[in-house]
Amino acid sequence: MSLSGFLLFFFSTFLISATPGPNMLLAFQYGLNHGVRQTLWVLAGLSVGLFALLISALLGIDIISRKLPWLLTVMKVAGALYLIYLGIQSWRHADDNVQFAKGSGSTSANTGSTNTSNSLKTAGQRFRQGMWVSLSNPKAILFFAAFFPKFINFSAPLWPQYVWLTLGFFVSETTWQIVYTLGGTKLSGWLGQGARLLWLNRICGLIFIVIAAALLWEVVSVDI
Predict the structure, then answer these.
(1) Of 168, 166, 165, 169, which Cα lies nearest the Cα of 153?
(2) pLDDT of 10-50, one tens digit each?
(3) Distance between CA 22 and CA 182 in Å, rounded?
(4) What is the model's pTM?
(5) What is the C-alpha to C-alpha distance for residues 160 and 187, in angstroms, rounded to an integer?
């Protein structure tokens, strides 16, 4: 994998990770209600769950590429179709998360009552909650399996590429989890201004479709 390929991968995942999902919303909720220090165990659990999903996806790709190369082609086509579906869904439902950002003001106004009504879990419970939120999203494995093959050079040594892809995605996701925890109402308030979150979701949808088109072209060009 070339440096330009890795930078393209990192830029794409960094934008995609910025959109609110289960992991980000959990980090945001804990950061808003209990503060950064109490959220660290949640972030640790989210990171462990994410790492487990990444390794599972990459091991599956590795086994398929070595033992069933024809299935890798099928997986690329299926992955491209899945990314196109994600892209269309991201564009069509781009405003679904806008209420998340615009509703932060009322949430922060009720923070005091929320803190008293929601008892803080133990460190172990917070860690397990974060880990299970990460692991309970089977779509993540489908996304990794569809997204990663475009950036892997299967004619070069694979494990160094796996390490870089894992680190790149892990850094992107963890960075945004920390931003959501630290930023809290400021970040959601900024995203809620105008159509910022709407267009962030739409840009991510376009990224999905562009990567899908590149995957399909890669499959077609090999057969020509």
Answers:
(1) 165
(2) 988 888 887 767 777 778 777 766 777 888 899 999 889 88
(3) 17
(4) 0.64
(5) 35
pLDDT in tens, 175-217: 888 887 876 556 656 666 667 767 767 886 787 788 788 778 8
* Residue 127 confidence (pLDDT) above 90: yes
CA distances from 3 to 9, 119, 129, 166 (A): 10, 47, 36, 15
Q: Which residues contact 53 (CB under 8 A, 6 or more apart)?
A: 134, 135, 137, 140, 141, 144
**Does position 106 have pLDDT exceeding 60, yes or no?**
no
- Sorted by sequence, the CB contacts under 8 Å of residue 150 that are 6+ apart come out as 76, 211, 214, 215, 218
Q: Residue 12: CB partners within 8 Å, gap ≥ 6?
A: 207, 211
Q: How far is residue 48 from each of residues 32, 34, 119, 148, 150, measured CA to CA in Å?
A: 22, 21, 24, 19, 25
Q: What share of the chain is helix, strand, coil (3-state, %, to 5)?
A: 85, 0, 15
Look up tokens 């579906």; give the residue.
85
Query: What sign has the CA pseudo-torsion 140, 143, 145, 147?
Result: negative
Give the phi and the psi of residue 79 in degrees, each rounded to 5: -65, -40
